[in-house]
Amino acid sequence: MAEAGLSASEPIGLDEAKAFLRVAHADEDALIGTLIAAARDYVETQTRRELAADVPAALRQAMRLLIAHWYEHRATASDRAAQIPDGVGALIAPYRELSL
């Protein structure tokens, strides 16, 4: 069964994301769910592939880093919020589908 507000097909569940963020309350579950979907969208766009049920550990870690970065900078109006955390590109790079 899908967690509240999340597709059953998300590679990272709400509980996993909250544990990574060290969030124990449910007040921001909707926000975290949105960040999970956004991280999946980002990784899918960068790799040019749809994430299946069995997602490689490196892509899952890239998603966790994105979720944490966006959660930490959710109220920031600076350029820092738009920047991608160090390491995300390196985690995603081996899985990119290249086109000519």
Automatic annotation (TrEMBL):
InterPro entries recorded: Phage_CHP (IPR011738), Phage_gp6-like_head-tail (IPR021146), Phage_HK97_gp6-like (IPR006450)
Alphabetical list of CDD domains matching this protein: gp6 (cd08054)
Pfam families: Phage_connect_1
UniProt superkingdom: Bacteria
Listed name of the protein: Phage gp6-like head-tail connector protein
